[in-house]
Amino acid sequence: MNTKMMNIKSELEKHGIKPTYQRLCVLEFIEQSQDHPTADHIYENLVKKIPTMSRTTIYNTLNLFLEKGLVVPLTITGTEVRYEITTGQHHHFLCLKCGRIYDVNIQCPLSQSKTVDGHQIQEIHGYFKGICKNCLN
């Protein structure tokens, strides 16, 4: 097993997840993906490598990863769920032309606060929608 897969295996074990081959491949794909993939996108790519992979396995794996806090869901479009590795507070930009989602590293003043107007903050999700610089060219 190469060093990269050993790191992925360690990450699964750290989150209390048994590192099966399918789980290793799903996590590796999400880590390598730059576009916050959907479950279907993950399936379509991994089934080429693992013909016995099922959509059910993908969904069950993603649900386990969510439950253990290994990935976070993004529901920016309102029609699909995308996934990314938990990487701390950051915002997202959705290109309305190509559909790509970019990480945006800006600081929200409320992200450092524990409350807003007396309400306890547990999660912050921020996103922008527009046309990305690649589509503008």
Topology:
Blueprint: H1 3-14, H2 21-32, H3 39-49, H4 55-67, E1 71-74, E2 82-85, E3 91-95, E4 101-104, E5 115-116, E6 119-120, E7 127-130, H5 133-136
Parallel strand pairs: 3-7
Antiparallel strand pairs: 1-2, 3-4, 5-6
Helix pairs in contact: 1-2, 3-4
Compact overview of the structure:
The protein is of the alpha+beta class and 137 residues long. The protein is built from 5 helices and 7 strands.
Describe this entry's structure for a reader.
The chain is α+β, with helices and mostly antiparallel strands and 137 residues long. The chain folds into two domains: 3-85, Arc Repressor Mutant, subunit A (Orthogonal Bundle); 91-136. Helices cover 38% and strands 18% of the residues. It has five helices and seven strands, in the order H-H-H-H-E-E-E-E-E-E-E-H. The chain has helices at 3-14, 21-32, 39-49, 55-67, 133-136, and strands at 71-74, 82-85, 91-95, 101-104, 115-116, 119-120, 127-130. The strands form three sheets. A three-stranded mixed β-sheet has the order 4-3-7, with no helix packed on it. Strand 5 (115-116) and strand 6 form a beta hairpin. Helix 1 packs across helix 2 and helix 3 packs across helix 4 (55-67). The radius of gyration is 17 Å and the shape is globular. It starts with a helix and ends with a helix. The model has no long low-confidence stretch (mean pLDDT 91).
